[in-house]
Amino acid sequence: MSDDEDVPLPAVPGGGESGLKPRQELILRTVVEEHIASGAPVGSKNIAGREGIDFASSTVRYELARLEELGFLDHPHTSAGRVPTDRGYRYYVDTLLTRDPPTQAPAMVETALDLSEVQREVDEALSRLADVVAQVTNLLGIVTAPAPQSSTVRHVEVLPLQPQVVMVVVITSTGAVTKRVFAFDKAIDPSLCEWAGAFLNERLTGASVGARSIESRLDDPSLSAREREFLAVLAPALELEVEGATSIFVGGRARFLAEQRHLDLIAIDALMESLEERYQLLAMLRGALGRNQVYLRIGSELADRSLSGLSMVAANYGVARRNLGTVSLFGPTRMDYRLAMATVRGAAQILSRYVEDVYE
Questions:
Q1: Which of 2, 19, 31, 174 is the most exposed place for a label (fewest CB within 10 A)?
Q2: Residue 15 pLDDT greater than 60, yes or no
Q3: pTM attached to this predicted model
Q4: Cα–Cα distance, 122 to 198 (Å, whole number)
C-alpha cells in the first residue's frame, strides 16, 4: 500500500457497523467539537446535561474512559478532561461529518475571484485565493500553480516598429507576455510581418510552450525561402522557457505563526522548512492531486513525523481532462475540519471554473 492510500480504520470490538455505538459517537463528537472551540481538555461536566445528551454523569465518565481505552481520546497530564487523538479526529471526519448536510464554502471564498475578468492573470488569482482561504479559516493557506508546461500559446503579434526593426509579442494562456525586438540589415516589408503574424497564430495557438513543440509546428515545406528566413530570425522569441519548478502561493503565514504559538515549535519549524524545500510540500500534496475528493492527513498520518501536531486538508482543481494543482490548508489537529473541508472544496471548484478558458 502506498503512502497516499487511506488506511482503513480497524473495527472496534462491541461496536456497530461504523465502529462505535451511537452513544459513544455522540460523546466523541461533543469532545472533538468542544476541544476545537476551546482548545481545553473536555471533562464529563462539559458534556452531561447538554441538549441531546440525557446520560447520567457516571455514564459519560464510563464512555469517556472507554473511548480513551479504544484510542479515540487521550488524557493529558493530570487533567480531568480528555482531548481527541489523531484516530479520534479521523473518525470524526470520515464517519461523523459525512452524515451532516454538506457545508457551503464561506461567502468570502465564493467572491474571491472575478470569473468575468477578461485578462486571466492566473498567478495573481492563485495568490489572492491563498490569502482568502487562510483568512476565513485562520489556518495556513497554500495553493499550487499548474506545472509550467501546462500553459499554451494564446496569441502572437509581429509588429514593424521601424523599417528595419520588428517586435514579436507572445501571450500565453496564463496571461504571461513576452516581447522580443529584432533588427535587420535592410527594411522589412510590412506585409511580410502581417503574413508572419497570421501564420504563427494559425500554427501556434493552443500549442504547449517549449522549443520542441514550437519548432515542430513551424516546419512547413510549402514556405518560400524568404518566409523561412524571416521565421528563422523570429524563432528565438517563440521558444519560451519552461521552468521545471511549480509555483507555490502561501497565504496567512504571519497570522498563522502569531496565532498558533501554542503548537510544538518542532512542528512549526518543520512546516516552514517544507515551504522552503518545495519538493517536500509537493510530495505531501501529491495524494490530493490524484483524487477528486477532499484529501486529509491528520497528525501522525503525515509522512514527516515532525509534523505530527498538524493536519492537512486539500482538494485539487483543474479542467475536464486533467488536474492542475491543489488548494490546501495546514493547521493544528485541533482545527475546524468542517470549515476547512468546505473551504478547500469550494475554493477548488471556483478555481476550476476560473482556469477553464485558460487550460482547455
A1: 2
A2: no
A3: 0.67
A4: 26
